[in-house]
Design brief:
Layout lengths: L3 E4 L2 E4 L3 H6 L8 E6 L2 E6 L7 H6 L22
Antiparallel strand pairs: 1-2, 3-4
């Protein structure tokens, strides 16, 4: 829960650190404010960040797939 505060002639919301980190929001991030069914909705315009290191860190023996052969290389697939 957070509280609306006066900020000059406007109102502001303080975003808790853990929530900001979860949605990759930092100072200067642009967001879109809309009203849906009487509720204020804040949308970030950022795609989720996926790093190769993080993705590969989630590979385990249980979710590692074997190589699948789809036939010979064709066209620009040739090395």
């Amino acid at each position: 829960m957070t509280k609306v505060v006066k900020w000059g002639n406007s109102l502001g919301l303080r975003i808790p650190k853990n929530l900001a980190e979860d949605v990759h929001v930092k100072e200067g991030t642009l967001v879109e404010l809309t009203v849906v069914d009487g509720n204020m909705v804040v949308k970030t315009n950022i795609r989720p960040y996926f790093s190769l290191k993080k993705l590969l860190g989630e590979v385990t023996e249980d979710n590692l797939h074997t190589e699948v052969k789809f036939g010979d290389a064709v066209g620009l697939e040739q090395w």
